[in-house]
Amino acid sequence: MAKLKESKGEPVAENPELVSNKFGQTEDFLNKYKTVLFGIVGAAILAGAGYFFYNHQKSSENKEAQNAMFVSVLAFEEDSLDRALKGSGPNAPGLLDVADEFSGTNAGDLANFYVGVAYLKKGKFEDAISYLKEFNANDLLVQARAYSLIGDAYMELKDFDNAVTYYKKASDYKPNEQYTPSYLMKLALAYEVSKKFEDAAKQYEKIIKDFPKSSEVMDAKKYFEQDLELAK
């Protein structure tokens, strides 16, 4: 099967600045109000102290991780995937090391995303799935993209049921005009290769009704009619 590609716009995975900006923009609420919270008595004080220390450590580690992965991200941008994954010396660790050493930080989480995309590009689909599933964000774009890429990997493995699951996750995650229609197109394709033409038609219909100004709408109208015929 030919490699699946995002149908429009600059892939988030290939724009490290855009991805990185999704992390580290919000200050920890509890750190801002620690004076008030430490007024709580008993065990809650100890729990709060431990929590603040944990977050301080995570914040410090996050900055260290961001610095550590800088060179490897540049290598990723240059499509030097082996160098991005494995690093290029003691002062330039690879994304694999960053993901492992700084697990639990935003930068470590982001490293999982990059590693997953790198493995997807290298055709190591099971490894790609493993790392992309470790990625977790609450942003508008990147989490949905991770779900979509997992779906791509499952499509390459001809595991169409799991591809459907993750394309649905992508299309359901914070729907927006720019990216959701492309995820719905992929979901429809996964249904089509599974001979579930009625389900595929529903995805095209959703694009037509919910995203009438999207660039995918003309294709959606065409394939919607075709799948309705095939579903009979």
UniProtKB/TrEMBL annotation:
Transmembrane segments: 36-54
Nucleotide-binding is among the record's keywords: no
Organism in which the protein naturally occurs: Sporocytophaga myxococcoides
Official protein name in the record: Tetratricopeptide TPR_2 repeat-containing protein
SMART domains: TPR
UniProt superkingdom: Bacteria
Gene3D superfamilies referenced in this protein's UniProt entry, alphabetically: Tetratricopeptide repeat domain (1.25.40.10)
Each TPR repeat, start to end: 144-177, 181-214
Pfam families recorded: TPR_6, TPR_8
Keywords: Membrane, TPR repeat, Transmembrane, Transmembrane helix
